[in-house]
Write a structure and sequence with these properties.
- By secondary structure, the chain is of the alpha+beta class.
- It has 3 domains: 3-99, no CATH class; 105-313 and 425-449, Vaccinia Virus protein VP39 (Rossmann fold); 318-422, DNA Methylase, subunit A, domain 2 (DNA Methylase, Chain A, domain 2, Alpha-Beta Complex).
- It is built from 12 helices and 20 strands.
- The strands form 4 sheets. A 7-stranded mixed beta sheet has the order 13-12-11-14-15-17-16, with helices on both faces. It has a 6-stranded antiparallel beta sheet with strand order 1-9-10-5-4-6. A 4-stranded antiparallel beta sheet has the order 2-3-8-7.
- α4 (160-169) links the parallel β12 (150-157) and β13 (179-182).
- The longest helix is centred in the N-terminal third of the chain and has 18 residues, at 101-118.
- The protein is elongated and about 100 Å long.
């Protein structure tokens, strides 16, 4: 009879210990009083019956019988760490103790990661919910600023027009080996051997944002018919990297989804740190808060500090980022239906008012994916030549409001450009994330780089 036990290296009075006992030993032929040898290697311990050995199988009384016990301690476990997962195979041929699957996988991940940093090779990133590539470009730029190269190994995106825009405008992210997957994430099927260095994912926030929950009349984020379960599928891909970067709206931190994400990542050997990044703090006009969670393998997590992702950069005035839009441009409109709605809302005591800016402001509200629909709550620029006419930000202005490089939406119509930008991040925030992660990786590799 054979037995497989997934366990951990324990401690007893400050000494590492593996404790095995019970019927499983007897069924595999290890009986009380048998002589056994214990031989250790760097990552393995082997126990066999050996009449010439001086160690014996101990016993513990239970009821009217005795259970066999094998205790392994001290130097025999030098190749293992306290609390480390182990795999114990018990069979009539002997007992073999090896590192658990997680530890073995983690060691391979880290060896590969450190080798790339040491030899200045590009890190392989996995981009889930890639969109137009704004988040990935920001992380890539931040990493590059501290000397860490990166390339998107696999990008997953449902909307063809978004991924095509990224391919056209983000040439620095891709190489000939990059794989683009146009697919719902729930159909993603990465191979068992697919491994990455960094996973980047901005999980769709439709069900978690206040506006999304109100519009769709949701009791919770998980109730959303398309976005509610996406985190589950994304997690299956995320654990293929030693570093996982997740962004979302701030309310996402209070969802069941995020609780599950934290629980699964911790069970898989990650340490998670979370922060909230504000656009104004990073020199963006858009006053948007965004959650950023960074999960790092426990083996190196003690060197990472999310509090280093900070900035104190004053945004410019809106007038400084405006394009010269001629007075006769079709962009200038009276939007009479919005004027009428504002009057009705005020009369009804709803307190809604249009959000109009004259250019002297240094902040504006969040500009979302459907900005092009000209809704009453959107930010509009007031004309200097007319008391009534206003307009939306142009796509270039929208990019500047979020500190996003303008070339990221080059060649796109207004609708697609606003969609890409509206569901993206404040570029400067996540450029800093990339910078801090890059510095962290360099510090982890300092012994290897000397």
């Amino acid at each position: 009879m054979k037995f497989l036990i997934n366990s951990k290296i324990g401690m007893n009075k400050g000494v590492k210990r593996v404790w095995l006992e019970g019927v499983r030993l007897a069924k595999a032929g290890f009986k009380v009083g048998d002589s056994i040898s214990v031989k250790s290697e760097s990552d393995k311990v082997v126990v066999k019956r050996d009449d010439a050995a001086n160690k014996i199988v101990s016993k513990r009384k239970k009821g009217d019988s005795y259970l066999p016990i094998i205790e392994i301690t001290g130097s025999k476990l030098d190749g293992f760490n306290e609390g480390e997962s182990i795999r114990v195979m018990i069979s009539p041929k002997g007992i073999i103790i090896t590192k658990g699957k997680l530890e073995t996988t983690h060691n391979k991940m880290l060896d590969r990661l450190f080798d790339k940093i040491k030899h200045n090779k590009p890190l392989k990133t996995l981009s889930v919910f890639h969109g137009g590539g704004v988040l990935d470009r920001a992380i890539h730029t931040g990493l590059d600023s501290v000397g860490v190269k990166s390339k998107v190994a696999v990008a997953v995106e449902l909307e063809a027009k978004y991924i095509e825009s990224s391919i056209s405008n983000n040439s620095m992210l891709f190489d000939d080996d990059s794989v683009i997957i146009e697919s719902p994430v729930e159909l993603l099927n990465l191979g068992c051997d697919d491994q990455f260095d960094v996973t980047i994912m901005g999980i769709p926030c439709t069900g978690a944002s206040i506006a999304g929950r109100t519009k769709n009349k949701l009791a919770n984020a998980e109730s959303h018919d398309t976005a509610g379960s996406l985190f589950h599928y994304a997690l299956m891909a995320a654990v293929k990297s030693p570093i996982v970067i997740i962004e979302n709206v701030v309310p996402y931190m209070n969802t069941v989804s995020y609780s599950v994400i934290e629980s699964v990542l911790k069970a898989q050997g990650y340490s998670i740190q979370t922060t909230v990044l504000n656009g104004n703090d990073f020199g963006a006009i858009e006053n948007r808060d965004r959650m950023c969670a960074i999960a790092v393998l426990n083996e190196i997590a003690d060197k990472f500090d999310v509090s280093k992702i900070i900035s104190n950069q004053e945004p410019p005035m809106i007038a400084e980022i405006l394009e010269d839009v001629p007075e006769d441009s079709k962009r200038w409109k009276t939007f009479q239906y919005l004027i009428d709605k504002e009057i009705r809302d005020k009369e009804a005591g709803k307190g809604f008012a249009r959000n109009l800016v004259d250019g002297t402001e240094r902040k504006c509200g969040t500009i979302g994916r459907l900005y092009h629909k000209c809704r009453s709550t959107e930010t509009y620029v007031k004309a200097t030549f007319d008391d009534v006419k206003t307009r939306l930000f142009t796509p270039i202005e929208h990019a500047r409001v979020k500190t996003i490089p303008e070339d990221l939406v080059a060649g796109q119509c207004d609708t697609t450009a606003h969609e890409i930008l509206g569901q993206s991040v404040i570029f400067n925030c996540f450029k800093k994330v990339g910078e801090v992660v890059g510095q962290f990786l360099m510090s982890c590799c300092e012994p290897q780089l000397i």
